[in-house]
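Continuing the series of single-chain predictions for the mutant panel. This is the parent chain; the variants come on the following pages.
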Amino acid sequence: MPRTTTAAEGLPRWRFTVAEIDRMTELGIFLEDDRIELIGGEIVPMASKGRHHEILKTALTFFWVPRTPGDLVFSTETTFRLSVDTFLEPDFVFYPKAGGWAGLSADTARLVVEVSDSSLGYDLGRKSVLYAGFGIGELWVIDAVRMTTRIHRDPTPEGYRKTSDHAAGDRLVPEKIPEIAFALSELELH
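Parent structure:
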């Protein structure tokens, strides 16, 4: 793999690896809570979290923690390493407890959820294509402002074959974890 990428203006840029970003974090160049993702070797700053995002994320956490089946891990804002030069930071990911965090991969992720307010266009666009390209079987993008959800299924390298839009009162049922089904309108938002 070439160690450089080409920027929009045609200038070469250094292509970082996940291991290099991990090392920079160990050295204090990046802080543990810096909001970045690594996409194809390029460091991408993430949008700041808005009020709607945090309120909905908190409500989802309180809802899902007691309902997550015992054989699964419910993880928030974990660094999801998808390749040697790509990691994303989904708001939620469910995966088998047996493999632990080291076993988290595109094949083992049962459900990935992005909660969006200011990042909605990015999450529905480039980020959903990335998840599909890595084979994530089910992605939910929840619009924290409008309280709607787009469910993405059937990934291909170009994007998801199936998407469906859901209103706040619609029941959302993950294909591989039906036990955590709910409607956004059921949540207690504080």
